Amino acid sequence: MKYALLIVEIPMHEPGRLAGDMNNFLREIQSHTAKTGITGMLNVGAFLIDLKNGLHELNALVAAAEEYKYATRTLFFDQVPPFVISKALPP
């Protein structure tokens, strides 16, 4: 596997916790990825990780999510997954 798509499940049922904890989590992730440059954040809670240097990057993000008690899901790919990006239609 060459790439991993990590989905961090955001607890929408706890809006108060979401604002504070999620901001702290994202700051932590941003600080970590700025050092390595390996991870791409596709959206809040969705990360595309290049595994060319092993699983360290994935492990670090999962560990950070676990600190905040966020569940994660991971999909592995042999190549960069093709995404369909759509634009919202005007009202």
Q: CA-to-CA gap between the ends?
A: 41 Å
What's the arrangement of strands in the largest beta sheet?
A: 2-3-1-4
**Over all CA atoms, what is the radius of gyration?**
14 Å
Low-confidence stretches: none
Series of secondary-structure elements, N-terminal to C-terminal: EHEEHE
The shape is: globular
Give the proportion of residues in helices. 25-40%
The biggest beta sheet reads:
4 strands, antiparallel
Judged by helices, strands and strand pairing, the structural class is alpha+beta
Q: Average pLDDT, to the nearest integer?
A: 80
What does this structure look like?
With 91 residues, the chain is of the alpha+beta class. Helices cover 37% and strands 24% of the residues. The protein has helices spanning 15-36, 56-67; strands at 3-8, 39-43, 46-50, 72-77. It has a four-stranded antiparallel beta sheet with strand order 2-3-1-4, covered by helices on one side. The mean pLDDT is 80.
